[in-house]
From TrEMBL:
Organism the protein comes from: Campylorhamphus procurvoides
Subcellular location(s) of the protein: Secreted
Domain Lipid-binding serum glycoprotein C-terminal span(s) in chain numbering: 281-488
GO (cellular component) term, any one: high-density lipoprotein particle
Protein name: Cholesteryl ester transfer protein
Signal peptide (from-to): 1-24
């Protein structure tokens, strides 16, 4: 129950892992043969994320290291003129418009219109001719520019990891104007150096800005992958997000396929045949996650092996369970079980005896598990005494949801079959009232209490991983036979990108 619900919602935190691709990797003949998790980002999500492109491009311009530019040219009457531009720094920068387009040739095209920027620095020049003797001058300069930028970001795979190649980068200059000391220099001097410098400067700007954009793209990709890998890792339990097959880029969406293997210490789940088909997902929401029953089931198994499927109840919680209804039969059963001992001196332990069996069905996630319950009393100064022990096979159907930054697990129906029942108050087992009371208590109050505890614990865990930083809009969890789909819209947390850029640059 614990990890079935968690897997459905936890994978939503892979919100940042929106695109993977695998052009450089080798996979089997079937494109979805070993897929355990599928992520689809649609065009509306791409348009939303493109609004953040301006921040990345501005960071690329500001972080670019512009080298000194030097040159020499023979000029009639003046002889050789040597020049150098140094201390080049960007001053003002603005972006008018940015568009994104998904191309089916495995690329994302981003067109950025009218990037206006000004550069400041120092111009040093000298010349020697018939009339002059090695005169050198230094003046401050400012360059005003208007640029269009085109990026074709190719998504490739390197050792099963995302590689975002943004080296296909073009700058088109609509304006490049040189000002020398506020235009106080003679017009011929300004014209002379504008002609000399423009071509070289364009090459330098293109090389340095495009290099920085490519570096930032890969840095962001690594940051996203590390963030996602950390989110699906909790101590010794890890979900393998390496690529399972080639990615798919259509005009309306980008889709990536991941293995979804569950790793626990020296244990690893095995690859299984996938039932994924692209037709199972639509394009009406921004983001989709397809999760196989195999992956979710293996997460539950890892949780069992790690001893996480256990719960301890004391005091008021224990009292609330055993006094769920004020009837004579209830009072009699409680008195017999606890032998008049206070709830504060008692403890109930619940744990899974075997790996839970998970089945995804249209009505919800069906969990079947063999569970043990032990109630002990701890009289003052004495050793604890087990007064009730039972083993039961529980089958419960759960519907999962996520709202107001909380995980919600709703039990729909359940069945209980007792395998072992031992009670100190009735060692012969001839009194059916205690077993009947426990049957009713477990189904009416016990299962909801366990699920409520799981909700709280998993919500806290997911928030510690950062899920609450994202604004998820109307997330839906849909279960079908053999798989589950999480679909949602979202608003991108702008501050996360700013924090990343400030820390890395």
């Amino acid at each position: 129950m614990c990890w079935a619900g968690r897997m459905i919602l936890v994978i939503s935190r892979i919100l940042l892992v929106l695109v993977h691709a695998s052009a450089a990797c080798e996979f089997g003949p079937s494109p979805y043969r070993t897929t355990g998790i599928v992520c689809r980002m649609t065009k509306p999500a791409g348009l939303l994320l493109n609004q953040e492109t301006a921040q990345v491009i501005q960071a690329a311009f500001r972080n670019a290291k512009f080298p000194n530019i030097t040159g020499e040219r023979s000029v009639r009457l003046l002889g050789k003129v040597a020049y150098g531009l140094s201390n080049i720094q960007i001053n003002n920068l603005s972006i008018e418009k940015s568009d994104v387009e998904l191309k089916e040739e495995n690329a994302i095209h981003i067109a950025i219109k009218n990037v206006t920027a000004s550069f400041k620095g120092t111009l040093t020049y000298g010349y020697a001719g018939a009339w002059f003797l090695k005169l050198f001058h230094s003046v401050d300069f400012e360059i005003e520019s208007s640029i269009d930028l085109q990026l074709n970001i190719k998504l490739m795979c390197q050792e099963d990891r995302l590689l975002a190649d943004a080296s296909d980068c073009y700058l088109t200059f609509h304006e490049l104007t040189l000002h020398l000391q506020g235009d106080k220099e003679p017009g011929w001097l300004k014209q002379l150096f504008t002609d000399f410098i423009s071509f070289t400067l364009k090459l330098v700007l293109k090389r340095e800005v495009c290099k920085e954009i490519n570096s930032l793209a890969q840095m962001l990709a690594n940051f996203v992958l590390d963030l996602a890998a950390n989110f699906v890792r909790d101590k010794d339990i890890i979900v393998d997000l390496s690529l399972a097959s080639d990615s798919v880029i259509k005009a309306g969406y980008v889709e990536s396929h991941h293995k979804g293997l569950v790793l626990y210490k020296n244990h690893s789940s095995i690859l299984s045949e996938s039932i994924f088909s692209p037709s199972l997902l639509t394009e009406s929401r921004m983001l989709y996650f397809w999760l196989s029953e195999h992956t979710i089931s293996n997460l539950a198994s890892a949780a069992f092996l790690d001893g996480r499927l256990a719960l301890t109840l004391r005091g008021e919680k224990l009292q609330a369970l055993f006094e769920m209804e004020d009837t004579e039969a209830q009072q009699k059963a409680v008195q017999m079980i606890f032998q008049g001992t206070s709830y504060n001196d008692s403890v109930a332990k619940v744990w899974s005896l075997a790996q839970p069996q998970i089945s995804l069905q249209p009505e919800g996630t069906v969990v079947k598990s063999l569970v043990a319950v032990e109630v002990s009393i701890l009289p003052t100064g004495e050793e604890s005494q087990v007064v009730l022990y039972m083993e039961k096979e529980i089958t419960v159907t759960i519907q999962a949801a996520y709202a107001e930054k909380k995980l919600l697990l709703q039990p729909l129906d359940s069945s209980i079959k007792f395998k072992v029942f031992k009670c100190t108050a009735d060692p012969s087992g001839n009194d059916p009232s205690i077993q009947s009371f426990m049957q009713n208590m477990i189904s009416v109050a016990g299962i909801p209490e366990v699920i409520s505890s799981i909700e709280s614990a998993l919500t806290s865990l997911m928030n510690n991983k950062g899920l609450n930083l994202f604004h998820l809009i109307n997330p839906e969890i849909i279960t079908r036979e053999g798989y589950a789909i999480v679909q949602l819209d979202f608003n991108f947390p702008h501050h996360l990108l700013l924090d990343f850029l400030q820390k890395k640059l």
